[in-house]
Amino acid sequence: MPPKRPIRNVFGNDDDDASTSYETQGGTPPKKPRSDAKPSVLRAGIHPLLLSEGLPYRPTEANSKASSSGVSSTYVKGRNNVPPESNPYLQASRGLAAEASSEGPKQRSMHKGFQFHKPGRHVREAEELRREQQMEELKKRIEESARKAGMQDELGGDEKRLVKQPPPDIEWWDVNLLTSKSYDDVPDTDDISSMLSRAKADNSPILLYGSDSPIDHYIQHPIPIPAPSDKGAVQPRGLMLTKHEQRKLRRQRRAAEQQDKRDRIKMGLLPPEPPKVKLSNLMRVLTSEAVSDPTKIEARVRREIAARKEAHERQNAERKLTDEQRREKVEKKKEREDEKGLYCHVYRVKHLISPRHKFKVRRNALDHGMTGVCIFHPSMALVVVEGSGKAVKAYKRLMTVRIDWTDPGAENDDKSEEEEEEVKEDANKVRPAGFKTLTTSQEDVDWSSNSCELVFEGPIRERKWEGRGFRARGVQTDQAAREALGEELQGFWDVAKRAAQSQDDGF
């Protein structure tokens, strides 16, 4: 038996540890090819993927031999050397590339596959539709019951249901131009010339001509209404001088007055002034008299000094204003400020409970001569003030800067301070009622979130609370708050509520 030979691996190395052999597998070992035999050559072209620009082409020994046998394998960049008929697998891709490069749009298949709905989809949509209809019916019933109970604003918020009214039989601007109270007799035509010719007839329903027509050859000019800003005419401002310039002008003015007085004395129009003798210039003014009897002269000089002091104090007392005159002066000053223009400010306070806050709100309004009202609602407090530009400017700083709304203060100290100020008030002044007893909701007050917000500011033509001072009103519903503000100012309450809602929502 011939000896067993080890198996040669594919890499050409002998594997001595191999446990199998051709003999053990029952086969015969392959014959070793002769050294003089020529290897077989695969006569095929280069694969098209190797001819792309991204892959470099490196000819191998087999490719070089294939080229020598008549098959072209030379690589030329940017050109496909394989004829189309030699590779039928690329015909489809070439056709798609030709379609994409053409000017026409890309052809797409019009056949789409079926898309089936999942089971229960339409049932869920129907249930959601029924649920929405039920919710709408429930809202309508709640609004109807709230409207009957007078609580529509509390349940429905600020939104109001606007019901469109049917058109009238005749508009108010056409009442004087038609003989009837409707448009039935007016011909329905677009020809203006024919309509004007019919209007010239005697029994025409349109009163454009004739003695009964409100149209004549006179021109009616509208009554001019002055603007609120016309009252506040800007006065020309004086020249601004520095401190040095002001002192210089004062010296020049006093020197001119003194020289005029001296000239009048020289001309005999005024009596000469007695010498102003003082203890410091006694010996210089009264030389001989002071030497002869100094005690007598000193007593006389002291009497003259006391007389001059008394005259000076008497003149000051005569020029001093009384309490009534001082009050009238302040009121006239406020009236001059009001003539420049009136303004209205609206503030929303989340919690107006602290006596210190309420005292500052009403006291500053009275001191600045402002009128208005403070509405106390369980959800918030609305402060409406009106006054001059100077007054509202100071009040705005008070409400937005000076008052710390997060600090309620000591309750006992605030009450004592308030009582002392109320005692000092004038009896003839109208004291605001309700500030001590009225308040907002006192349940679970979070003072850290308490704030005051300016809701509205703008000019007004005249005061709405003239003669009523600054008062307080307590309400429980939104409708009562609107009635307290009046028909012209009730919109401020809706604006304040929307601002409060926006603040709660975090906007």
From TrEMBL:
Biased composition (Basic and acidic residues): 122-162, 254-266
Record keywords: mRNA processing, mRNA splicing, Nucleus
Chief subcellular location: nucleus
Subcellular location: Nucleus
Domain of life: Eukaryota
The keyword Nucleus belongs to this UniProt entry's keyword annotation: yes
Start-end of Basic residues biased regions: 108-121
Biased composition (Low complexity): 64-73
Domain Pre-mRNA-splicing factor: from-to ranges: 87-322
Biased composition (Acidic residues): 410-424
Biological process according to GO: mRNA splicing, via spliceosome
PANTHER family registered for this protein in UniProt: U4/U6-ASSOCIATED RNA SPLICING FACTOR-RELATED, U4_U6 SMALL NUCLEAR RIBONUCLEOPROTEIN PRP3
Protein name: Uncharacterized protein
Protein source organism: Kalmanozyma brasiliensis (strain GHG001) (Yeast)
Lineage, highest ranks first: Eukaryota, Fungi, Dikarya, Basidiomycota, Ustilaginomycotina
